[in-house]
Amino acid sequence: MNSPKMLSHFIDGEPQAPASGRWLDDVNPATGEVHALIARGDAEDVDRAAAAAKAALRGPWSQWTAERRAELLEQIAAGIEARIDEFAEAESQDQGKPVSLARRMDIPRAIQNFRFFASALRAESLGAHPTLGVLNYTARRPLGVVGLITPWNLPLYLLTWKTAPALAMGNTVVAKPSELTPWTASLLAEVIQAAGAPRGVFNLVHGLGAEVGQALVEHPDVVGLSFTGGTVTGRRLAATAAPMLKKLSLELGGKNATLVFADADFDQAVEGACRAAFLNQGEICLCGSRILVERPIYDRFVAALTEKVKALRVGDPADPTTDLGALISQEHRAKVEGYLRLAVEEGGTILCGGERPNLPAPHDAGAFLTPALVSGLAPTCRTATEEIFGPVATIHPFDTEDEAITLNNLTRYGLSASIWTEGLRRAHRVAEALDVGLVWVNTWMLRDLRVPFGGVKDSGVGREGGAHSFEFFSEAKNICVKL
Ligand code: NAD
Ligand code: 6OD
Predict the structure, then answer these.
(1) Whole-model pTM?
(2) Are 79 and 110 in contact (CB under 8 A)?
């Protein structure tokens, strides 16, 4: 038997074993098999990583020009691209998603994150405010050591979304990926080192949130934290970091609506609603898990969407025809199934899905669930307003534009929404009225990396993307010169 892969920390330019000597299992959720062991980090490891990152801030890295950092980002992008199949396979085995999805979405986007921030860095210009006899100009400097804490649903996509701008701005990084999906973070550390980053510029500490994440948040040398994850965790993180006056970016949960008006292009809206609800097994913070449909087309829409959802193929993540792979874990599947039981208690009808598919070994031991569509629920009930983060969408009729807006705005979340209509004025009017950070019209999750990304209410604080990421990962300094 092969010995399991060991995913060590990566500190000060090299793999390092955990100080505790303890390791966690890395489970493939599609088979239940342990395919690697993960270093179980603790405060001592975080301290070593923060010390390496702090030392690197004073080393050769501080002398690197923006152009040289942009070149590094491009080298990293090329390094991931050269190993794209290995990255896609690792992401799928850790997360459960189809390899084909990782190959066409997660890993290309990780590459794009580095290429985009390399170009953005080259294009960056800072402000100057000249007046008679006086010149004010703005300079930037890195924040220092930054902590990046990321979730399990889009592991490399989100880690690189933070790493690229953090390095572009000249910071040094201590990253803490989810303990459920550590593998591609370890591959990334290898690529960053091979691309020529000085020792200590990028450090990785694996382990549990309560042990590594919390220690990173509390560490006095970590001056900024960019966190993506659940709202409860984000709130806890803020409670620790805010009194320490750390700079914080919080990208949190969502319960997003897909609003379909009667004048929408029907087929495109059905296709869009299905994709928004179930891509990545519904495990994307932007997923449209509450589908609001104007009453004149409601019955036809429900019938068409139900057929489409039933046609989605659930199974072996390595099969290129698979649409949905496994959920992240057995525990998460049990949570999602609990919501389906709640939906029935709350008076809902499960139109399709919500079942454990019969799959041959080794996938009979995986955390698979067929995608579920639920109708007949009050839009205010728990199933329709709490984040489930799995392949479950509820569908509700509405009668007026005002009602659709009210229904969208009644949850505690405010991340994103997608509006489907052929009415130009209505699209703008409704987009303006929704309490969310991101609105798509006649599309969903179409990303331009320059735009502000983030949510309102319980979906987070702050924006990342393009110049917003650069602002977060740097301090602006104004210099006033009397001429
Ligand atoms: P989570 O909050 O449980 O974990 C996120 C990360 O935080 C993990 O690395 C975890 O180990 C770490 N963590 C846990 N406890 C911690 C603590 N006390 N201190 C510091 N770090 C800690 O979230 P998850 O279950 O991994 O991911 C799912 C959640 O993430 C969903 O709510 C989803 O909506 C959200 N999410 C939001 C976005 C966004 O951009 N808004 C993107 C992806 C996921
Ligand atoms: O597309 C992005 O930049 C982004 N941050 C997506 C987050 C998805 C959440 O699951």
Answers:
(1) 0.98
(2) no
